[in-house]
Specification:
Elements: E1 2-6, H1 10-21, E2 25-29, H2 33-40, H3 51-60, E3 64-67, H4 70-76, E4 79-82, H5 97-109, E5 114-118, H6 126-141, E6 147-151, H7 161-167, E7 171-174, H8 178-188, E8 198-201, H9 203-234, H10 238-246, H11 267-280, H12 286-309, E9 318-322, H13 337-347, E10 351-355, H14 360-367, E11 373-375, H15 379-383, E12 388-391, H16 403-409, E13 414-417, H17 424-429, E14 433-435
Parallel strand pairs: 1-2, 1-4, 2-3, 4-5, 5-6, 7-8, 9-10, 9-12, 10-11, 12-13, 13-14
Helix pairs in contact: 1-3, 4-5, 5-6, 9-11, 9-12, 11-12, 12-13
This protein binds uridine-5'-diphosphate-xylopyranose (UDX).
Protein name: UDP-glucose 6-dehydrogenase
Pathway: Nucleotide-sugar biosynthesis; UDP-alpha-D-glucuronate biosynthesis; UDP-alpha-D-glucuronate from UDP-alpha-D-glucose: step 1/1
Active site: 266
Length: 451
Amino acid sequence: MRITIFGTGYVGLVTGACLADAGHEVMCMDIDAQKVARLKQGEIPIYEPGLETLVTENVGQQRLLFTTDAAEAVAFGTLQFIAVGTPPDEDGSADLQYVLAVAKTIGQHMEDYKVVVDKSTVPVGTADRVHEAIAGALGERGVSLDFDVCSNPEFLKEGAAIEDFTHGARIVVGTDSERVKALMRECYAPYNRRVEKLMFMDVRSAELTKYAANAMLATKISFMNEIANLAERLGADIEQVRRGIGSDPRIGYHFIYPGCGYGGSCFPKDVQALARTASQIGYDPQLLNAVEAVNDRQKSTLFEKLGQAFDGQLDGKTVAVWGLAFKPNTDDMREAPSRHLMEALWAAGARVRAYDPEAMEECRRIYGERDDLTLVGGRDEALQGSDALVICTEWKSFRTVDFAHLHRTLRTPVIVDGRNLFEPDQVRAAGLLYFAVGRGDSLRISGRPAH
Ligand code: UDX
């Protein structure tokens, strides 16, 4: 079938490439002409494993088209996916201006029946507003055409987006219309073969499902981080506690890894937006607020542990940072714990030598040239002349370490590990001071216990 996608950001591009690869004819529309020109050449503006190949192949097969022409885009598909950004505005609510602008564009150009599919993560009630915007634009033209709006949230993880799209646990569609259900069935048929994954529900429930999923996952992480902080203070080991509770199938092993806080484009933004929605309707979202507050505090723990190691004397120190991206297999640094750490270090007068397998360019783009930031070409280089090492991202290539070498290279033998990559006994046996998350005592440089 013919499908139009508005927005060639992360979600739009993955959706477009996957649907084209499944045999549909897809046209992706973006107002950014430069971006569209690059995409036509198969140049991908983001790092996502497998995406470049998928785009290049399907552009070559002419199943995946790119355009900046709104009229052409609206005319192309019966399904019109809206996959544009919903950045947080000043108070943390989702800013709908781009979504509503696309809705208006569709209303201005459509000539026959369309199903408008909200793919962007949008607050409950947005489908109604999209409906109004389209109806308004049609009204201005003085035409009356039939159309439907449905909600079809995405559950893509960065770094595994193609796998998540093609083999996701469920495909949620919010609609009451049988016509829409049939069209969405046809759209997703290639991914709905052996197990029934399509879940039809009313529009508002579909919109809320997306927020509820992300808020639940964020809650699990904040909960574990809180227990980890308690474990640290109580002399327990969170990694053993994690295994102990994960074995209960009611709890499960997923998303209970303690760390230095969740980041990325979804959890922080969506938890905040859901909390704002709650407040706007007069409901006090106590748990959501706590999830956010615990996460903010967790991001500070890396800096605090360094402070403990050095008795608060970080001025003039140089700190090696391994990992800048908010998680492995992406170059995305949005809301990354590394940023929180580096900014705190700079404010305290320390310098940073940082390395990330993918996010170096992104880091350069965000922070530009600074005297107190040196971006180096490898993890060993980051250690040269550094007083301590902090691990912010659990890239696979950081997992194997020669601790004796590390001890020889660092000026002072301090490791702050925000991802619990190593066994504390092994690290400490090499004479290093090791501060992990929720894993018992370490010592200050001065020799006094840190906790
Ligand atoms: C998330 C959701 O998983 C996805 O379904 C949704 O569509 C978008 O948001 P993403 O942001 O790409 O995807 O990353 P994810 O792998 O879920 O990790 C989010 C953050 O949580 C990362 O910072 C990660 O380090 C952290 N995390 C994850 C933990 O700290 N502990 C865990 O146990 C799991």
